[in-house]
Specification:
two-stranded antiparallel sheet, single chain, mainly alpha
């Protein structure tokens, strides 16, 4: 029995051994070569070993970065720059550029490391982009806060309340997007708020400038009125203008524009009234002065008309001065002084009449300054005519730049004060002057009709 059992055990062991030896090659592991245990399977084993080695080489070789991948990193860097990373996050931007440069450099020799640097480049570029958007939004929000403060100081709470509330609402909406975080939309909302606030401030600034210009205008009106003598002729209006101007300026400085407008309008009206009243008063004074000048010239001309001319007795008309303020007839224009100059005393007398007629016409046209001017000329001619018997002498001078002539000598203030009386000098000196256009330095001339 024991022999049978031993036999069975031996059979089992032999069976196991035979079963184990039935494999021609051992189990292969990746990355290793195998050997054979039998000569009969050598050819098959060699073929299998070659195939296994080829597979191992392909598995260990990594793919390098493609151009599309490298361009992807470049685009992210450019995107960050567009967002302002060069200003707002230069550190991350530089890292992104440095990692990308290293990835390009190692792409052929060390693809694994190139991929790592490529991924780091993208990460830092994205960080630079996000951080820049965030910083821009924060700075824009700070600008909006300053503008709100400026607008409120200029009176926006009172004079642009609705617009100011809209701007503040846009600011709050921007804050909500900032928390999400959606920095692009937040920045847009802040920018819209900024634009609205700038319009408010510009509107208030223009309004302020209008008030400043009006204040300056009223001050100028008051100064002009004072120069003309408003303190004498329109003292009440001038005083009221100053009072309301001061009141309006205070209200304006306190941003109380509605009350300031009322006060400044009142000041302007009083200043204009003071100016107009003063002008009317001065005009009346000038009218009276012109009327007196014309009457004085007329009386002098009447006196002159009674004196015969010293050089001839023909052509002189008796003259009776008349002046009626309500006269309605139109006076003809008088001849131009440069067209025809008097050459006789009779013509000189008629010239005086021409000038007094000019004075009367200017008076009717309410041009009192010219009326006085013409009347004074008429009077001076008449006075010279009356004094025709008085004599003095004048020695002709050598003046290269403005030589002496009878016309200019007659114009000198210490002679006649008017060039129209030159014939009197000529007629009184015909014994030495054959041609009135030719006189010489050193000639001693008799001057009749000196005042």
């Amino acid at each position: 029995m024991k022999k049978i059992n031993l036999f069975i055990i031996v059979l089992v062991i032999l069976s196991f051994a035979i079963s184990f030896n039935c494999k021609t090659t051992p189990e292969k592991k990746e990355g290793t070569t195998t050997t054979t245990s039998s000569t009969s399977t050598t050819s098959s084993t060699t073929t299998t070993t070659t195939s296994t080695t080829t597979t191992t080489i392909q598995t260990s070789q990594k793919e390098k970065l493609s151009n599309d991948q490298l361009n992807e990193a470049k685009e992210l860097i450019n995107k960050a720059k567009t967002a302002g990373a060069e200003k707002f996050d230069p550190a991350n931007l530089k890292k992104a550029e440095d990692y990308l440069a290293q990835a390009v450099k190692e792409n052929e020799s060390n693809p694994d490391n190139a991929i790592k640097n490529w991924e780091l480049s993208k990460k830092h570029a994205e960080d630079a982009y996000i951080n820049s958007l965030k910083k821009k939004a924060e700075l824009k929000r700070a600008d909006v806060e300053k503008l709100i403060s400026s607008a409120e100081k200029e009176g926006a709470n009172k004079y642009a309340k609705e617009d100011l509330e809209k701007a503040k609402t846009l600011l709050k909406e921007g804050d909500e997007f900032f928390k999400k975080p959606d920095y692009i939309t937040a920045y847009t909302k802040y920018s819209d708020s900024e634009d609205a606030l700038k319009k408010i401030i510009n509107k208030l600034s223009n309004q302020k400038k209008e008030y400043e210009n009006k204040i300056a205008y009223i001050k100028k009106l008051i100064q002009d009125a004072e120069k003309l003598g408003a303190e004498q002729y329109a003292n009440k209006e001038l005083t009221d203008a100053k009072i309301f101007l001061e009141k309006g300026e205070k209200e304006f400085n306190n941003k109380n524009y509605e009350d300031a407008k009322v006060s400044l309008d009142t000041a302007e009206k009083n200043a204009l009234d003071a100016l107009e009243k003063t002008k009317l008063a001065l005009k009346e004074l000038k009218r009276k002065e012109a009327l007196k000048a014309i009457k004085d010239a007329g009386k002098t001309l009447e006196e002159a008309s009674k004196i015969p001319p010293p050089d001839d007795s023909k052509g002189k008309k008796d003259y009776k001065f008349e002046f009626d303020e309500n006269e309605k007839q139109n006076l003809n224009n008088n001849p131009d002084d440069n067209v025809s100059q008097p050459s006789t005393y009779s013509e000189l007398f008629n010239k005086a009449i021409d000038y007094i007629n000019k004075a009367k016409q200017a008076y009717k046209n309410e041009d009192y300054d010219m009326a006085i001017y013409y009347a004074n000329i008429a009077k001076k001619i008449a006075e010279s005519y009356i004094d025709s018997g008085v004599m003095k002498t004048y020695t002709v001078r050598l003046i290269p730049e403005r030589r002496d002539c009878l016309w200019r000598i007659s114009e000198y203030k210490d002679i006649y004060g008017t060039p129209f009386l030159w014939p009197r000098i000529w007629k009184a000196n015909k014994n030495i002057i054959s041609n009135p256009d030719l006189i010489y330095p050193g000639q001693v001339l008799k001057i009749p009709n000196i005042d």
